[in-house]
């Protein structure tokens, strides 16, 4: 760089008018004009003057600025009161199209109450998913913030017995306002918006961009973020819950030659610098596949959960539904609520349906798998339904299965094993009144804090000793066994 500056300076000093002006110390208008012309000749490339780019506003409504094969399906459309330009393409996907083993038509038959349970989003329970808007963005960075721009907006919606995949591309950043106006129009017409990590990234980013572009605040229909559902169902057995990982392990499709997410921003900046639209072909395909995968996942989670997912994932779905009944008082009144049926308040009815759904999913999962996870979920469901004897039996089976599957050299034991032991201690104490066994399981480890373990131990010892001093049917009190309490 220093060499270029030195070379440029030497050329300027070689100009006679410049030397004369410097020597006289007086401004010389013809000399300054000559200097400007000389600088321009040094900076512009060979071949004449630089051509000014034609602004997009001067393009006709039907003109398509074809610069590459990848962008040949895109066309400009007017949007907003000022007829701002939107560079967009639309493709149609038939309902029979499949992503792995999941067809697109399943999304139209999805049960909204199931999706509301799995997403922990009550507002979804009455949603018409035939009017859902699927949304995904590709951006100039992954960190968010005001410097990150969504350069590609991928949308999908059901129309005319097929799904339409709509992609809006920013050829220049001046077109961002038009893209946001178009998005607002789609959001207002949608019954809900469906994303994958959209609650954390896509929607907050788009709302920030709307503020910066002085666009009215974006509408906020009820939001189904599929990433949250995927994590609840699959993270116990998958190291990653990225959309690509879910496609591979849940939907059964592996992408071949797909663009890596970390490379997308660099590809777009290359396009901005060079105008070579062909480099965007992989990015456009990546975005389209993301949107189609979300449609298939809605059908899988909301319509074919029992048949379409791994049995352990189904058990995790049962756990999510079972946790809807969150308080002890409500669990104790579950039988009463169930008897009331339609006479119960809406919240009570929804909780009853959740527990019934959990019981069904747990039963199906146990038919296919007797893993420790499936058995522990079955125990949780039985406990919620008030069947403590069944819960105790299932927890004992779960502990045996977990100990069988664990690596004996793995220390400490897994969280699942310690959680099951904790529940067993409670049931032995309060239901079975088997204080010796409760103390034995407590000694093996429940993962609780030392103070809590000590408190629980002391209480169990007192209860055990008190039970041994109770009079026998013959009228004499039983003597306590020698040997003291079972160690912690």
Q: Your description of this structure?
A:
There is one protein chain. This protein is an alpha+beta fold and 488 residues long. The protein folds into 3 domains: 2-43, no CATH class; 75-305, Nucleotidyltransferase, domain 5 (2-Layer Sandwich); 308-460, Serine Threonine Protein Phosphatase 5, Tetratricopeptide repeat (Alpha Horseshoe). It is built from 20 helices and 9 strands. The strands form 2 sheets. A 7-stranded mixed β-sheet has the order 1-2-7-6-5-8-9. A hairpin with a 4-residue loop joins strand 1 and strand 2 (84-94). Helix 17 (388-405) runs antiparallel to helix 18 (415-430). The longest helix is centred in the middle third of the chain and has 23 residues, at 281-303.
List keywords for this structure.
488 residues, alpha+beta, Nucleotidyltransferase, domain 5, Serine Threonine Protein Phosphatase 5, Tetratricopeptide repeat, seven-stranded mixed β-sheet, two-stranded antiparallel sheet, 20 helices, 9 strands, 11% strand, elongated, disordered C terminus
